[in-house]
């Protein structure tokens, strides 16, 4: 389960057996989200309020190239 980033207590990671489309899992304590990297579509979340979700979308958007690069390197795409 490679961790790609840690920002403000959030851990951005993916599992070693992931599938397309490219996406990132984000967790912090009891908060969780899964966001697609190309579209920024939230495909799963819990215990997130709208302010926190907006922050996570901004962080993913700001770090998309790093997250996609890590995905491509790990999965040899």
């Amino acid at each position: 389960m490679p961790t790609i980033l840690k920002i403000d207590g959030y851990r951005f990671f993916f599992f070693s057996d992931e599938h397309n489309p490219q996406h990132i899992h984000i967790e912090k304590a009891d908060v969780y989200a899964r966001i697609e990297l190309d579209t920024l579509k939230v495909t799963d979340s819990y215990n997130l309020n709208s302010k926190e979700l907006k922050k996570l979308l901004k962080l993913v958007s700001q770090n998309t190239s790093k997250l996609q690069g890590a995905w491509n390197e790990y999965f040899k795409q």
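The chain has one domain: 3-75. Residues 37 and 65 are 9 Å apart (CA to CA).
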